[in-house]
Write a structure and sequence with these properties.
With 437 residues, the chain is an alpha/beta fold. The chain is built from 13 helices and 24 strands. Helix 2 runs parallel beside helix 9. The longest helix is centred in the middle third of the chain and has 21 residues. The chain binds ligand LLP. GO terms for molecular function: diaminopimelate decarboxylase activity; pyridoxal phosphate binding.
């Protein structure tokens, strides 16, 4: 994928950078992000919306990978930004991301977070529930502000990979249910709040979705609901946000569509189902996260020990694991890997890749075919750009890896590797524990 290839030395090269050189320069484990690939993906979304002729915003869902350099890149590519916490918001603001293009999500925004976002003059709050609606109105009134909002609704469609289910009533912690009337009541309530300006609705149906039907069904449900509030409450919407969830290929057998196919399916469905509800079709927003950065990321590890259990399995351990990639342990996610320093050698053995945490569940890949693996080899795990660094932990007090952006043969550090000092930076030992007895 992207700009990676195997070079003359038989090494994996990404963005023109030899991974062995990246190891020498930055150490391992190392997250490597193919910058051009991220940029291309942003452009694919924007180009696809341009083709549709609709008004649009493409918001990068920063939860997938939120660091200042990524926020800068997203801004350069004309993206908006979806944040879900003060930490993501702070990262974006520190990076100089234009506040008016930031959307604030989440099902439990604290009063402090709401204030921070209001003071920063962000573009829009995606209001999740009634408690938040009242809280936001109160804080906005106190500050004498008008605040743009979307209401998050659950359209009764759940999608994951190939399956999408249409459920009458959605059991979800997020949003107002369209099916049981709570969304209708929320629109009525929101429209009557003096300091809130209701722009429209937000719907997110799931993640790592390969098919368009779930999105089309969500558009239809949201459109029907829009018609009903227009007729019943005389409220109209100028924005419909359809969330993220567009799938990527992690392993052979994953069959995502091209970005343009998802966007076309959505915009076509909008043209069909929203026709005639209001004089103008709504502006369409989407929030891709995984599909912007997922397959642009590679994690580079150094192989350490191994354990061969004859007739059973060979474990090969790397210098990272569930601390930098918790997805296999959490979701049984599958990944592909290759030996980055001997990328052109034939496959010779089947091994399982273990992490270095004190936990049996710390496995990265079960059964991957590689050349004969030796201590000191470089293992590259592909498609680790999304929900890896952003979900990394310090379990076992393991330091978080560095992150580099590679492009045109240059590797730029965008996150420094944590130091041992970082590990104890927030520790405090109360004086009484130090008392000599
Ligand atoms: N918008 C909303 C409201 C979301 O909840 C999400 C993801 C997105 C956008 C972006 O979805 P994407 O395009 O990245 O699929 N940690 C999990 C994924 C959780 C996704 C949560 N919401 C994983 O590692 O697979």
């Amino acid at each position: 994928h992207g700009t990676s290839r195997i070079n003359e030395r038989g090494h994996l090269e990404i963005g023109g950078c030899d991974t062995a050189d990246l190891k020498a320069q930055f150490g391992t484990p190392l997250y490597i992000v193919d910058e051009q690939s991220v940029r291309n993906r942003c452009r694919e979304y924007i180009d696809a919306f341009k083709v549709s002729g609709l008004k649009y915003q493409v918001a990068y869902a920063s939860k997938a990978f939120c660091v200042m350099a990524m926020c800068r890149l997203a801004e350069e590519e004309g993206m908006s930004l979806d944040v879900v916490s003060d930490g993501e918001l702070y990262t974006a603001l520190e990076a100089g991301f234009p506040a008016e293009r930031i959307h604030f999500h989440g099902n439990n925004k604290t009063p402090d977070e709401i204030e921070m976002a209001l003071d920063a003059h962000i573009g829009c709050f995606v209001v999740d529930n009634e408690v938040e609606l009242h809280l936001l109105q109160a804080i906005a009134a106190e500050k004498g502000r008008q605040v743009k909002i979307l209401l998050r609704v659950t359209p009764g469609v759940e999608a994951h990979t190939h399956e999408y289910i249409s459920t009458g009533q959605t059991d979800s912690k997020f949003g107002f249910d369209i099916g049981n009337g709570s969304a209708y009541e929320a629109v009525k309530l929101a429209a009557s709040q003096p300091n809130l300006e209701l722009l429209g609705l937000h719907s997110h149906i799931g993640s790592q979705i390969f098919e368009v039907e779930g999105f089309q069904m969500a558009v239809q449900r949201v459109a029907e609901f829009t018609r009903s509030v227009k007729e019943g409450l005389n409220v109209t919407f100028s924005v419909v946000n359809l969330g993220g969830g567009f799938g990527i290929r992690y392993v052979e057998g994953d069959t995502p569509l091209h970005v343009s196919q998802y966007v076309k399916a959505i915009t076509d469905a909008v043209k069909t189902h929203f026709a005639g509800i209001a004089p103008e079709l709504p502006e369409i927003w989407v929030e891709p996260g995984r599909s912007i950065v997922g397959d642009a990321g590679t994690t580079l590890y150094t192989v350490g020990t191994s354990k061969d259990i004859p007739g059973v399995r060979k474990y090969v351990a790397v210098d990272g694991g569930m601390t930098d990639n918790p997805r296999p342990a959490l979701y049984e996610s599958q990944y592909e890997a290759l030996l980055a320093n001997r990328a052109n050698e034939p496959v010779e053995e089947k091994v399982s890749i273990a992490g270095k945490c004190c936990e049996s569940g710390d496995m990265l890949i079960w059964d991957v075919e590689l050349p004969k693996v030796e201590s000191g080899d470089l293992l590259a795990v592909a498609c680790t750009g999304a929900y890896n660094y952003s979900m990394a932990s310090n379990y076992n007090r393991i330091r978080k890896p560095a992150v580099v952006f590679v492009k045109d043969g240059i590797g730029d550090l965008v996150v420094r590797r944590e130091s041992l000092e970082d590990i104890v930076r927030h520790d405090v030992v109360p004086v009484r524990i130090n008392k000599q007895t």
